[in-house]
Specification:
Number of strands: 6
Mean pLDDT: 93
Shape: globular
Largest sheet: 4 strands, antiparallel
Order of helices and strands: HEHEHEEEEH
Strand order of the largest sheet: 1-2-6-3
Structural class: alpha+beta
Distance between the termini: 34 Å
Radius of gyration: 15 Å
Helix content: 25-40%
Strand content: 35-45%
Length: 97
């Protein structure tokens, strides 16, 4: 089994993800081969919170031009983690709000 730090790659900070912070929803870029149970365990282990629900989606890579050549950025997986109401927030995101 992978470690929790192999499952969670990085947090995603966008306008939409910051708006979801009031609902206790946090967005992460995760490993492509991870499932919802592994993501929930990893978030609970790393941040010490209680996870209520995990929504995942596969994001297709976009085309990117490099001069005359056209390349494709790699596909990746995004997870939106909802915490329980009695759980504390994640400190990294709380400083952004």
């Amino acid at each position: 089994m992978e470690s929790a730090y192999d499952v969670i790659i990085k947090p995603i900070v966008t306008e939409a993800s910051i708006k979801r912070l009031q609902e206790k929803k946090y967005t992460f870029k995760v490993a492509k081969n991870s499932n919802k149970i592994e993501i929930a365990r990893a978030v609970e282990e790393v941040f010490g919170v209680k996870v209520k629900k995990v929504n995942t989606m596969n994001v297709m890579g976009r085309q990117k031009r490099f001069g005359k050549q056209v390349g494709i950025k790699p596909d990746w997986k995004k997870a939106i983690v909802t915490l329980t109401l009695d759980s504390k927030g994640i400190e990294f995101f709380e400083s952004l709000n």
